[in-house]
Design the sequence.
């Protein structure tokens, strides 16, 4: 066991503010006699054994100051999803692996693979919508014939971007999207030939999946799903951070805030739905999320943070929608954000201890 002050590195492309999530992480690290240093992926100089970044000034509470430090004992990879997809942290992950530095969160397989894992998990207790990879327009046609309404999603998508609701509509095919890339809302009614042309241009060029529509609960004309966030603590065990109901706009396609959705406190939605004779079992949602987490760490030992989108139908049956190893923090309420920041530090210390680094 190496007796030294642990360093938790947080890789980010965002310049830190003096308050907020990173400030809370820094304070939590100090409580455990650890250092927290934020650094850009390009400022990790493995060949020199140092990194440059920002560290909280605990003496004068002046905020984050620029520092140079030895390489961290553990790295929390916190770069935006779209930059990760562009390869922004690939070199960092490779260098960290060469130097034996654990990195969380790991990259997770695409939506088709995770849907299959959860469908095969008997202890998870989730229904999983029929899901197929789209390799041709015929896949969409076949599923439309079977289900009538589909959701088509990019395999590596985020934020509701490029998610289509596709439905048969009196001889035509309706295509709805709340966030059609940079163009905003999209509403089309196409004949079969027009649809095949549209799909070839906007679906087949990058990997997509097709899923049957889930019969979700609705509230004020919008579909409801639940972001359930769990994180691992200093013992490596999962804890619930929070459950946040998300509501799509009336007739909306997705519940994402950036795509026109809204959020509310669980207790508020629960009270409103009780007036309609519906009950939401919060404990069951938590139990389901923790069971999925246990299943996933058998595949990804360093998985420390998961955000699920789960749905409930009118019978109270939970459905799996998708999984996100980088759930958006802005969706969480302040008390949940504080817990998330504390647990991110705690799990980092768990990994550092596993590696053999012990603070004073």
Sequence:
């Amino acid at each position: 066991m190496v007796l030294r002050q642990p360093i938790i590195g947080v890789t980010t492309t965002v310049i830190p503010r003096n308050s907020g999530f990173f400030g809370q992480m820094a304070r939590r690290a100090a409580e455990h006699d650890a250092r927290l240093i934020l650094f850009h992926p390009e400022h990790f100089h493995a060949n020199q054994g140092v990194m440059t970044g920002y560290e909280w000034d605990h003496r004068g509470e002046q905020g984050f100051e620029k520092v140079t430090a030895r390489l961290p004992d553990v790295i929390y990879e916190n770069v935006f999803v779209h930059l990760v997809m562009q390869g922004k942290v690939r070199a960092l992950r490779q260098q960290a692996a060469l130097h034996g530095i654990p990195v969380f969160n790991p990259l997770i397989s695409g939506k088709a693979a995770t849907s299959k894992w959860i469908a095969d998990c008997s202890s998870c207790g989730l229904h999983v919508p029929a899901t197929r990879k789209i390799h041709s327009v015929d896949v969409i046609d076949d599923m439309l014939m079977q289900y009538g309404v589909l959701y088509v999603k990019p395999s590596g998508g985020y934020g509701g971007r490029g998610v289509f609701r596709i439905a048969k509509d009196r001889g035509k095919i309706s295509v709805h999207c709340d966030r059609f890339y940079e163009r905003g809302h999209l509403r089309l009614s196409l004949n079969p030939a027009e649809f095949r042309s549209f799909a070839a241009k906007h679906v087949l060029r990058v990997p997509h999946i097709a899923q049957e529509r889930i019969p979700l609960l609705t509230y004020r004309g919008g579909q409801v799903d639940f972001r359930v966030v769990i994180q691992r603590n200093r013992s490596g065990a999962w804890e619930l951070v929070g459950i946040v109901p998300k509501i799509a706009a009336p007739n909306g396609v997705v519940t994402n805030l950036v795509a026109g959705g809204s959020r509310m406190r669980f207790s508020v939605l629960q009270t409103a739905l009780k007036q309609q004779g519906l009950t939401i079992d919060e404990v069951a949602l938590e139990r389901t999320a923790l069971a999925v987490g246990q299943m996933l760490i058998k595949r990804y030992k360093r998985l420390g943070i998961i955000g699920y989108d789960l749905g409930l139908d009118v019978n109270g049956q939970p459905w799996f929608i998708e999984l996100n190893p980088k759930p958006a923090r802005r969706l969480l309420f302040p008390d949940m954000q504080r817990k998330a920041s504390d647990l991110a530090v705690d799990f980092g210390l768990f990994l550092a201890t596993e590696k053999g680094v012990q603070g004073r």
Q: What stands out?
A: The chain has nine helices and 21 strands.
